[in-house]
What does this fold into?
Amino acid sequence: MIDLSLLPDGGIGWLEASGPVNHLVLSTRIRLARNLAANRFAGRMDSRERQTVLDQVLEGAGRTGALGQAVTLRVDTLEDWDRRLLLERHLISRELAGNGDRSRAANARALLMQQEASVMVNEEDHLRLQVLVSGVDFGAGWRRIEAVDTELGQQLAFAFHPEFGYLTSCPTNVGTGLRASVLIHLPGLVLTKEINKTLHGLAKIGLTYRGLYGEGSEVVGNFFQLSNQTTLGKSEPELLDHLGAIVQHVIAVEERARQVLLREAPTVIEDKCWRAFGLLRYARTLGFEETMNLVSGVRLGASLRLIPNIGMYALNRILIFSQPAHLNALAGRIMSDEEMSIRRAEFVRETLEAEVRRGQGT
Amino acid sequence: MIDLSLLPDGGIGWLEASGPVNHLVLSTRIRLARNLAANRFAGRMDSRERQTVLDQVLEGAGRTGALGQAVTLRVDTLEDWDRRLLLERHLISRELAGNGDRSRAANARALLMQQEASVMVNEEDHLRLQVLVSGVDFGAGWRRIEAVDTELGQQLAFAFHPEFGYLTSCPTNVGTGLRASVLIHLPGLVLTKEINKTLHGLAKIGLTYRGLYGEGSEVVGNFFQLSNQTTLGKSEPELLDHLGAIVQHVIAVEERARQVLLREAPTVIEDKCWRAFGLLRYARTLGFEETMNLVSGVRLGASLRLIPNIGMYALNRILIFSQPAHLNALAGRIMSDEEMSIRRAEFVRETLEAEVRRGQGT
It folds into this structure.
C-alpha cells in the first residue's frame, strides 16, 4: 500500500477544522483546469503523448517554488485500493481514480502535491490545479492557487484563447477553468424540509450541488458540495465573490433553520443528536452510510453545543477514516464487508472515547 | 400522593437481584386465595359486608406475628395514580387497582404489607396472600407464605371443603388456592425464534404465560410471567416442585439459546446489546415500551458479561421506576406524555451514569 505519510499532513490538512465557520463548512476547494497548448486534449492522446505531457509538467513544476518540492504519485501504477484511498481523501477525482483498464499503467496519470496545493496530471484536462483549505475561505484558497498557476504558467505554455480564455477538454470549463466548491453540512435545512427549496434557488443563480464524493455521488449525512456552474464571462475574483456571497446566504438560512428547530422542537433535536452519539459511541458494527448519518446528528449537536467536548476535527476524521480504503489501510489488508463494519465501529468508538477523555481532562 | 416509604423496602425488596439465577429470573411470586367461611363470595357482597370482611381480616391479622405490624393501605380511597403506583410495583392486582366506580370508597379494598408478605383484601377473593422474593426461589417463598397462611388460619375461619380444599370465588382457584409464578427474561429464546415452541410446550404441561403486568398484559422487553394453571389435586409442595422443575428447564433452554447466539452471531448480539445501552444512556426522550425493549438488550449484554459494570438491580429499578405512575410520583405531579418521556429518559440516564461511575471506581 502507498505511504500517505509522504504527503504533507497526509493530504488532509483541510480536515483540521481551523478555518472560518468550520462548524458548518468543512472545506473550500478551488481548482483550475489547464492544458498544454502544444498537445492534443486528453481524450485524443495516446499513451506516448500522455507521457510527454507528464514529463513536461514534472519538469516545469520542478522549477517552481510552489511545486518544486512536490511529492509525486503515479496514480496509474497504483493498486485499486490505493487509488481509492486518494479518492476518499479528496486528493484525486473519480476520473483520475478511474476504473479498470483506463486507469492502468502507461496512462501517465499522476498527482503532484505540496502543502495544500496539488496538481492532477492527465485527468480530463492535462492539468487540474487544486487547493483545499479548512472552513469557508475563498480568499485564502484563491491566493494560494493563483500563485501556483502563475508560477506554472511561466514554465508551461497553457492553451489560451484571447476571446474565450483558457481552453479545456470539456466546454463547460472554458474561460477561467475555475471551479470552486464548499463542503457544507446542512442538517437544519434537511430537518425543516427547506433543503429542496434552497437547492432549487441555488440552481437558478448558477450553483450546483453534489454529495460528499463529487459528481454523481449521493448526498449522505446531510453533507453537500456546492459549486459554481459558470466558468466563463467573469474574472476569477468575481466568480469567487459571487459564490462566496451565496455560501454566506446558505450559511445564514442553515443557522436560521437550526434556531427554528431549537425553538420549536428542542427535545426532538436534542434527542436525535444524543441518540446518534450513543449509537456511534457503542455500536459494534456500523455501515458507512449509517455512520455518515449518525455523524451528521453528532455534528449538529456539537455545533449547537448540545453535546459538549466533541470537536469538529474528530468528526471530520471519522468522515474520512471510516471509508473502505482507509479502513483497509488501517488494518493493513483487504477486509470483508462484515469485518470492515466491525473495524469501522471500532475506529469510531476509539475516536469518540478519546474525545470524551480529552473533554473530561480539561 | 401516598408515601411508599411507609412500606418495607417501598415494597420492592424483590427487585434487589439477590436471589438465585437473578440474571434470568427477576422474582418469584406465590399467592394463596382464601375466603371467610361465614361470608358470601366477593361478587355477591354489598359494601356493608365488604367492610365486615375487612374488619375481620384486620383484627385477625393484627393478632399474628407475620402481619401484626403490617402497613395497611385503603386502596379504594386512593387516587387513581396512587393505585396505579401500587400496581406498577406489583403489590396489588389489576383487579384490586380497579377502574372507575368499582374501585371507589365503600368497597373496603385494602392492602396489608409486612416485609415481603402482603394480603389484598376484597379482591376477587376475600383474601389474597402474596409473597414476592428475588430470583427463582420457590422454597423460600413457600416457607414464608405458609407461615403467614398458618397464622392467619388460626385467627380466621377460611372456607374449606374436605374434598375440594379451599373454596374460591372462581373455580379455577379451588383446591390449594395457590398460584405461583416467576418473572423471567427470555431474550435468547425470542432472538432464536424458539419462544413460541417453548411456550406451546409449557401450555401442554399446565403452565401459562403473561406479560410484565399479569393477566391480559402484553409481553414487552422479552419479560414473561410463567405460572401454574392447576391448583387442584396436588399438594402445594408438589405444585411448586412441578413448577420449579419446569422453570429450571426453561432456564436451561434460554441459556442454551444464548450460547447459540454467542457462537453463531456474536457481533450481531454484541452490537444489539451495546446499541441498546448507547440509546438508554443518551436518549433525551423515551417511551415506556421502547425503554423496556432497550433494557432487555442491556440486560442480555450485562448477563452475558458483554457489558461490564451494569448491575441487575439498576436494570430492575429502571423497569419499575420508568413506569408512568412512578415518574409522576418522582416529579410530584401528573405530567403530560411528552414531559413524561423526557423525565423517563432523565431517570434512565441518571441510573446508568451512576452505574458507570460506580464501575469505574471499583
In short: Chain A touches chain B at residues 267-268, 270-271, 274-275, 277-285, 338, 342, 345 (CB under 8 Å). The CA atoms of residues 116 and 247 of chain A lie 22 Å apart.
